[in-house]
Amino acid sequence: MSGINTLISGASDYFPMFVRKPAPRFVSESGNRIYGIVAEFSETPVVFKAAQQVRDAGYSKWDVHSPFPVHDMEEAMGIKTTKLPLIAAGAAISGVAFAAFLQWVTSDMLYPMVVQGKPFGAWEPFMPIMFELGVLFTAFACLFGMLALNGLPRFHHPLFAHERFYRVSNDRFVIAIEAEDPNFDPAKTRALLEQAGGSHITIIEEED
Amino acid sequence: MTARDPDQSNDARLTGHDAGSQPAPRPVKSVGGGKDDGTLIEDPGKRAPLILGDRSFGDVTDIVCGYAEAPIPKPWLALFTITSSIAAVGTGMILYLIITGVGVWGLNNQVDWAWDITNFVFWIGIGHAGTLISAILCLLKQNWRTAVNRSAEAMTIFAVVCAGIFPGIHVGRVWFAWMLFPIPNSNGIWPNFRSPLLWDVFAVSTYATVSLLFWYMGMIPDLATLRDRAQLRRARGLSRPFAIPMPIGTDIVVPFLPRPDTIRSFAYGIASLGWRFSSRHWHRYEKAYLILAGISTPLVLSVHSIVSFDFATSILPGWHTTIFPPYFVAGAVFGGFAMVLLLLIPIRAVLPNFSDLLTLRHLENMAKIILVTGTMVGFAYSMEFFIAWYGANQFEFEAFANNRVNPNVAPYWWAYWTMITCNVLSPQVFWIRRLRQNPLVIWLVALAVTVGMWFERFVIIVTSLHRAFIPGEWHMFFPTWVDILTFVGSCGIFATLFLLFLKFLPVFALAEVKVVMPQSHTSDDH
Fold it and tell me: Model pTM?
């Protein structure tokens, strides 16, 4: 189900006119909806322990942004394993089935050709293309399934308004906790991130 | 460089966002004055460092992105002019072939596959190293692959581009090339799915597509890094104005054109799909990468196997051999790694700081792969010959003895012996430790192997075809100038694409290099 919800929320990014946003829980002094709070870290072990603390504090709508995939981070964050392998398996089966159908219908029914006196519908010569199309479909499902589950491409995001966030792609780690999280409280969340070792803790506003 | 506020340049230096800036080079180039850069440890208890010079994450980003962001260097411009001119000659030859007909090539009724298919198999074979490095070495958890995987994958795609040209144009009437694919048409004609040639169409197009997806997916985070750096420079007013590169003298500044950083943040921004380095995204990304590696592994092995079926399923002596699939796959890995080394050793020598990421140990590892696969290829050559004798088929034996090996009767004996010298004998120098640790020796062997692998395909295709069963059918093949220039042109296309990659895309897989750095560990105890 989480995958479907991600797809729906991803679509809502592109069609905001069809989506009614709930009233903001927190509003900044300038009257903008608050997206969340970010804290910066510069060491991998520190951000790893901080992620465990945020997970244990019971947050659910939050994320760790890191320049590379940190080993075991999904455990430290409590992320459930992705459904991507199921999508890939479905694609593999459809690729093989499509290749079998294509070759069997064309070689046995639409355009039977005598080649070395072999039976028209023999399955053996169909194997290589069944394999190839199975691989082809799986590869497409992997890339586009991964992007769809991640809600990408998405060219705008409240975090991109924060200049320090751009260092994540270089050498910094950022923990971002969203205001939509039921546990979110500007003061308490800030205290948690400070205690975990975060620096440059900033509130990020959404610009509607 | 325009005059800049002192605060700004300080800021730029501290954060490493100056376009094209490189961190200071590693102070000690080698250990103990010798050739060793500190990575050639043979102690099993010690792990050789993958990145030299105590580099931080920021240094690695600067090294890799610095080249993509620097103003166009003059040697690059000179090389690009040469290679793109060669590519234009090749394109002209293809055009000449299409408007005139395949008669401009040297092939004839007997030798009806010649340079075209030799070039096709040569290029598609080279294209095997990239996916082998990214997929098989990924599954085997060989961390040293991170130094070469991006450039090897790029090389794979460009080699497949070159390979794809030849089957397309050798069909004669190129405007019917769409009939290779099962497209519904008003004649109700469908392709013959029992033919290995059709399997080949599917295998090569699947391979090209999957390699491209793999390469692109690996590049998304690194393109996002380039996007962010361009965006930061724009925000801080550090962008250079647009300048037209000039071969001699200073570049001509064109103030009214968009600044390079503006173009970069849009182009890299669109290509990186809004990647924001989220751990939830990384989790799915790593899973997708693993599945892609898992399916690409049998794919790599299948592609050259299917290419070998083009020959092995015929009844022609010299082609009709069951050893072909493994023999072709080993040869493809062999030739592909040789091309990786051929390209990367000069780049490593020319560009400072690249030798921090691509160490002597990486080169030595690849030299060992060359030695292993070269010996496998040598075994296949001898096995082929042995079975031709042991199988007691006169035609099969004579296809080897009289068409290839014996200099007194075989017209193409020089091609066969070039192949043996380059492919079997030259890699044997890597048994000597000092030689396989010397970049120049590795480069020379890689060059010999690349030549030898081209001759291998020439030997298989032309020497088998030129003398079939009846002496009345015997016919020689000589290449025409169009044949030669088309092949040279395909090398130009390959080099041009690779130069573009080198200048405008991240040459190392940044995120993956950072994973193998010691700072990436989540606890201090390892």
Answer: 0.88
- Rounded to the nearest integer, the mean pLDDT of chain B is 85
Interface check B146 vs A, CB under 8 A = no
Interface test with A, best of B157, B217, B219, B295 (most A CBs within 10 A): B295
Q: What is the DSSP string of B47-98?
A: PPPSS-S---HHHHHHHHHHHHHSPPPHHHHHHHHHHHHHHHHHHHHHHHHH
- Three-class DSSP category at A27: strand
Distance CA B239, CA B430 (A): 48
**How far lies B153's CA from each of A4, B156, B224, B245, B523, in Å?**
33, 5, 19, 29, 32
φ and ψ at residue B105, rounded to 5 degrees? -90, 165
Put simply, the answer to whether B520 touches A71 (Cβ < 8 Å) is yes
Question: Under 8 Å CB-to-CB from B175, ≥6 apart: which residues?
Answer: none
Report the distance separating Cα B344 and Cα B124, nearest Å: 19
> Looking at residue B27, what is its pLDDT?
61
Reduced to 3 states (helix: H, G, I; strand: E, B; else coil), residue B36 is coil
Convert the pLDDT of each residue in B238-293 to its tens digit.
Answer: 778 888 888 887 888 888 888 888 888 899 999 999 898 999 999 999 999 999 98
Q: pLDDT tens digit string along B8-19?
A: 544 554 444 555
Query: Is B232 in contact with A163 (Cβ distance < 8 A)?
Result: yes
**Residue B420 amino acid letter:** I
CB contact under 8 A, A138 and B291: yes
Instruction: Give the torsion sign (CA, A35, A36, A40, A46).
Output: negative
Please tell me the least confidently modeled range out of B3-7, B61-65, B334-338: B3-7
Show the DSSP H helices in chain A as ranges: 2-14, 44-56, 73-77, 84-104, 127-149, 186-195
Chain A residue closest to B296 (CA)?
A135
Spatial distance between the Cα atoms of A183 and A180, rounded to a whole number of angstroms: 9
Residue A138's nearest CA partner among A85, A98, A99, A102 is: A85
Partner-chain contact B291 A160, CB within 8 Å: no
Domain locations in chain A as residue ranges: 20-79+151-205, 84-149
SS3 B525: coil
User: By CA distance, what is B201's nearest residue in A?
Assistant: A129
The residue of chain B nearest to residue A78, with distances taken between CA atoms, is: B280
Distance CA B374, CA B414 (A): 19
Kindly list the distances between the CA atom of residue B12 and the CA atoms of A36, A74, A170, B60, B471, in Å, as whole numbers in the listed order. Answer: 29, 34, 14, 16, 76
Q: Following DSSP, what letter does each residue of B411-468 receive, concatenated?
A: TTHHHHHHHHIIIIIGGGGGGSHHHHT-HHHHHHHHHHHHHHHHHHHHIIIIIHHSS-
Of B503, B492, B372, B477, nearest to B77 by C-alpha is B503
Task: Give φ, ψ of B522 to 5 degrees.
Answer: -85, -15
Q: Pairing state of beta strands A62-65 and A34-41?
A: unpaired
